[in-house]
Q: What sequence folds into this?
């Protein structure tokens, strides 16, 4: 439905000759195409937006275009470039007085810090945004995960419970519902809440083919990863394996490369926990490949975390 609306905006912009409306339509169409997993189409749309933004020479549309540059850099694992582009996008957003410039910039940085396993350092930052923007449930959904990654289980459980009551009724079914529910799914897996995991899995399963997109801030990759975490949490490892295998394939095909070694590790850990049949062999293969990918990509945090896992399983990188 959103893609149809974006097409209508573009058709209207062409008919009445308002190029600013065309820029806005292309901006939102990129979001929709990425969530739908149509990465190549989204890139082509971004190229059109970037050309139009330069012609219009207005900070707001240049802010939009530069924001998508950040997403592509983040999806490709170009961290230093993504940080530089994020600063440029933020400056343009401030010049344009875009009301979401600060929140998008924070989300961009948090995504990059998560790649370095440093999300826990930003608990206070997330808390500040929750206090300033209580209506933005996507930020409230990040808070339980930040607490949990910081070793604050009690605080994480309490923050999760606030949104999980009455089958997650506190999460409005708006543009950000899907992203918020997927992030809550990851927190749920850390908590080991099997009942809530079943609820979240059932709610998200119809959208398994989608990508988890955070406006022009970041792409969290295939929803299959979150479904795999949830299925493993309520004990259906066969379903979890199917989801994890799909997540690896879809993220590779759609160009979300930095996530792949992390997914391999999550998958391997859950296979080792079940430890049936060929689970050990598959887990070792996943860990070895993840180690090689992390080393090649310079993800030093993940390399360090993988070394004891490889030793414990007898795998050789």
A:
């Amino acid at each position: 439905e959103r893609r149809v609306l974006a097409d209508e905006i573009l058709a209207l912009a062409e008919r009445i000759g308002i190029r600013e409306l065309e820029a806005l339509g292309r901006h939102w169409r990129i979001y929709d195409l990425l969530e739908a997993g149509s990465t190549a189409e989204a890139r082509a749309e971004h190229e059109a937006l970037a050309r139009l933004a330069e012609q219009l020479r207005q900070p707001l549309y240049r802010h939009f275009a530069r924001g998508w540059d950040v997403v592509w850099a983040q999806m490709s694992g170009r961290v230093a470039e993504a940080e530089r582009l994020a600063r440029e996008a933020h400056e343009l957003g401030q010049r344009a007085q875009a009301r979401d410039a600060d929140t998008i910039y924070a989300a961009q940085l948090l995504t990059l810090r998560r790649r370095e396993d440093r999300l826990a350092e930003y608990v206070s930052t997330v808390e500040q945004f929750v206090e300033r923007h209580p209506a933005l449930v996507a930020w409230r959904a990040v808070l339980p995960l930040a607490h949990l990654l910081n070793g604050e289980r009690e605080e994480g459980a309490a923050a999760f419970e606030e949104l999980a009551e009455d089958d997650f009724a506190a999460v409005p079914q708006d543009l950000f519902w899907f992203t918020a529910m997927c992030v809550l799914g990851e927190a749920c897996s850390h908590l080991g809440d099997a009942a809530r995991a079943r609820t979240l899995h059932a709610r998200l399963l119809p959208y398994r083919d989608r990508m988890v997109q955070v406006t022009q801030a970041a792409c969290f990759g295939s929803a299959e990863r979150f479904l795999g975490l949830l299925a493993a949490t309520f004990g259906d490892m066969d379903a979890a394996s199917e989801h994890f295998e799909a997540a690896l394939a879809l993220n590779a095909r759609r160009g979300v490369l930095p996530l792949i070694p992390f997914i391999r590790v999550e998958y391997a850990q859950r296979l080792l926990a079940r430890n049936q049949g060929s689970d050990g062999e598959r887990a070792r293969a996943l860990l070895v490949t993840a180690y090689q990918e992390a080393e090649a990509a310079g993800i030093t945090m993940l390399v360090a975390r993988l070394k004891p896992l490889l030793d414990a399983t007898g795998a050789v990188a």
